């Protein structure tokens, strides 16, 4: 049984076939990258996986369970978290508060239950402490200690992208969907991000689906690459093989690869 699989996934908007008969499988604890030019359907696939869209046909299987028809919050509870091309954070909340919101699916007493605790021994208090310990480890992991109490709106763009990554990680996902995580980052930030993504794969044992236009990142950290254009599959395989595929060169890279 495949750990994660999409099977003949299709969706149209009006007369436009945004995704057509897409199938792929992802092994557990691997980095699986989806590449293609703008408008090729990559983010639409993420929206289907995360329950924002419902496919016209096809299946989305996590450990054999079909997720089609589930709501986004139910899919998150089953172990799928994501980041977005455009940062989706609470700018007027601190880094710590944004990461704590990522723990909401694990909280029985509610996100703000700890704020109303009557004593250190209450269930809400114990839960608050346990969740804060998990978030503190993520803050250390992503080197966000110096900004943990800063409002997100005051942070530079690269740091905000890391906070969004941290919030997704706080969900303790089985699968992490990263949508253009390096967009807007400088060279040094991208290098650090490469290391963090590999560390998430190895230390947290998370399976990662990656959409990314930076081909250096794709080539450097991917275990497997799926290339698409205009809603359909071009090819899939190991990074170096996909990079050399003539249709990929024509549709995405735009240049010959030696």
By DSSP, the count of extended strands is 10
Task: Give the termini separation.
Answer: 37 Å
Q: What is the succession of H and E elements?
A: EEEHEEHEHHHEHEHEEHH
Mean pLDDT reading: 88
Oligomeric form: single chain
Low-confidence stretches: 114-118
Shape: globular
Number of helices: 9
Report strand %: 15-25%
In short:
This protein has 258 residues and is α/β, with parallel strands linked by helices. The protein has helices at residues 42-49, 72-77, 95-101, 123-141, 157-170, 187-203, 215-221, 239-243, 246-253, and strands at 4-13, 16-26, 31-35, 57-62, 65-66, 80-82, 175-179, 207-211, 224-229, 232-237.
Name some characteristics of this structure:
258 residues, alpha/beta, 6-stranded mixed sheet, 4-stranded antiparallel sheet, 35% helix
Question: What can you tell me about this protein's structure?
Answer:
- The chain has 258 residues and is of the alpha/beta class.
- Helices cover 35% and strands 23% of the residues.
- It has nine helices and ten strands.
- The strands form two sheets. Strands 6-7-8-3-9-10 form a six-stranded mixed beta sheet, sandwiched between helices. The protein has a four-stranded antiparallel beta sheet with strand order 2-1-4-5, covered by helices on one side.
- Strand 1 and strand 2 form a beta hairpin.
- The radius of gyration is 19 Å and the shape is globular.
- About 2% of the residues have low confidence.
Secondary structure elements and their pairing?
Blueprint: E1 4-13, E2 16-26, E3 31-35, H1 42-49, E4 57-62, E5 65-66, H2 72-77, E6 80-82, H3 95-101, H4 123-141, H5 157-170, E7 175-179, H6 187-203, E8 207-211, H7 215-221, E9 224-229, E10 232-237, H8 239-243, H9 246-253
Parallel strand pairs: 3-8, 3-9, 6-7, 7-8
Antiparallel strand pairs: 1-2, 1-4, 4-5, 9-10
